[in-house]
Amino acid sequence: MLSPEILEYYERGGERLRLAAGTGRLEFLRTWDVLTRVLPPAPARIVDVGGATGVYARPLAEAGYAVQVIDPVPDHVAAAGALPGVTAVPGDARQLPCPDASADAVLLFGPLYHLPDRADRVMAWREAARAVRPGGVVVGAVISRFASLLDGVVKGYFADPEFVSIVDRALGDGVHLNAGAESRWFTSAYFHRPEEPAAEAAEAGLDAPRTVAVEGPVWTTGTRLTDFLADERLTGIMLDKLRRVEDEPSLLGASSHLLTIARRPSP
C-alpha cells in the first residue's frame, strides 16, 4: 500500500502532535470549521480514510458520530482504534473494506497526496463514492502545488540545494520526491494545482465538487499566527475572515492545503 519510505516517515509518530500548534493548529481549526458545515448531523456514520491516529475521528466521535478509521499504517490503526467511539481497520483508499452505500460521509484526509498517479487518485475518489450513500458527502484534502515553495521561504529550507531541487520538481509536475535523506522535510507526495482535485472527483462520478482553501495565505505569517492562535477573540476573527474568502480563486494556490467537497449523485 504505502512505499517503505512513506511508511517509515509516519512510523516516527509525527501525526500525533502535528495539528496541535502553529500552522498545524490552523489547519485543524479550518478543516473542522468546514466539516461542521458540510457533514450530515450526528449520529451519521463517517468513514475516515487515512485518518491516522484519529485527530479528526476523536472530536467527531465526541460529537456523536459513528466513526471508522481506515489507514495503512499499523501504529495509526492501533492508536485510532483505542479512542472511545472509534473503530479502526487497516486498508487502502483504492480498495476500501466497506460495503456499498454504507457511510453517510467519507473523508479522504491523507490518501490523495500519497498517490502520485492520477488514475490512482481517481480510483480513491471512486471508492469513496461507492462507499457513501446516494446524496452523501465526500471530502478530500490535498496539498497545494506551491506549498513547498512557500515552506522553503518560511522555514529557511532553501539554504540546502537539495531542497531547491525538490521544489523545482514539484513546481513542474507536482511530484514532491524526497528520498528520506532529510527528516525535517515532508515525505514523498503529490502536490495538486487548485483545479485538479475537483476535476478528479468529477471524473470519479461525484457531483458538484467545489474546492476551498484551508489555511489561505496566513499560514506563512510565523509568530503573528502564533499570537492570533493564543487569543480566542483573534482566532475567531481570523477564522471568520478565512471562511469568507475560502473559495476565492485568486487565493487558493497560496493555501498549504485544499479541501474538495463533493456528493454522490442521488437516484
- SSE-based structural type: alpha/beta
Mind telling me the CATH class? Alpha Beta
Sheet with the most strands, sense and barrel status: 9 strands, mixed
Instruction: Describe the global form.
Output: globular
Low-confidence region ranges: none
Separation, N- and C-terminal Cα atoms: 33 Å
Architecture overview:
It is a single chain. This protein is α/β, with parallel strands linked by helices. The protein is built from eleven helices and nine strands. Strands 1, 2, 3, 4, 5, 6, 7, 8 and 9 form a nine-stranded mixed β-sheet that branches.
Key phrases:
single chain, alpha/beta, Rossmann fold, 9-stranded mixed sheet
Give a summary of the structure in a few sentences:
The protein is an alpha/beta fold and 267 residues long. The protein contains eleven helices and nine strands. Helix content is 40%, strand content 21%.
Q: What's the topology here?
A:
Elements: H1 4-11, H2 22-38, E1 45-49, H3 57-62, E2 66-71, H4 74-81, E3 86-90, E4 103-108, H5 118-131, E5 132-144, H6 147-154, H7 161-173, E6 175-176, E7 189-192, H8 196-203, E8 207-213, H9 223-229, H10 232-244, H11 249-252, E9 257-263
Parallel strand pairs: 1-2, 1-4, 2-3, 4-5, 5-7
Antiparallel strand pairs: 5-9, 6-7, 8-9
